[in-house]
């Protein structure tokens, strides 16, 4: 992402969700709050922030995932990377591929 080889999309609601989850006690036990803040600062600095003009709600089974889909649509994303592939099936109708992090890394290292 820092080397601009990966176009990462971020929005304020998604950033706030990342921050809340990462700082939840016991979620990331091997990092300090300062280290988590460094990661969040990098996401904020290097992530592309498309303007979302249209809300596609409700589209996905989990309403909290709709903001990810809306961000992907607004940013013309080709792929959503998530372990939650079962809930993102509707993204296919927008031409957005769904991949697990493992599958994405495996595919990317082969290129």
Largest sheet: 2 strands, parallel
Please state the oligomeric state of the protein chains shown: single chain
The helix/strand order is HHHEEH
SS content category: mainly alpha
Chain-averaged pLDDT: 92
* Integer-rounded radius of gyration: 15 Å
* DSSP helix fraction: 25-40%
> How many extended strands?
2
| Main β-sheet, spatial strand arrangement | 1-2
C-alpha termini separation: 16 Å
Tally of structural domains: 2
Q: Name the shape in a single word.
A: globular
Strand content: 5-15%
What does this protein structure show overall?
This protein has two domains: 49 residues, no CATH class; 62 residues, no CATH class. 40% of the residues lie in helices and 5% in strands. It is built from four helices and two strands. Helix 1 packs antiparallel against helix 2. The longest helix has 14 residues.
What are the salient characteristics of this protein?
mainly alpha; two-stranded parallel sheet; 2 domains; 111 residues; 4 helices
């Amino acid at each position: 992402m820092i080397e601009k080889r990966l176009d990462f999309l971020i929005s304020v609601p998604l950033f706030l969700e990342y921050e809340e989850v990462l700082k939840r006690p016991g979620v990331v036990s091997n990092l300090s709050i300062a280290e988590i803040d460094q990661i969040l600062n990098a996401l904020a600095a290097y992530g592309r922030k498309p303007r979302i003009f249209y809300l596609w709600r409700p589209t996905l089974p989990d309403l909290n995932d709709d903001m990810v889909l809306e961000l992907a649509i607004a940013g013309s994303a080709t792929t959503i990377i998530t372990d939650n592939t079962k809930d993102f099936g509707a993204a296919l109708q927008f031409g957005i591929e769904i991949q697990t992090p493992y599958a994405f890394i495996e595919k990317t290292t082969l290129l």
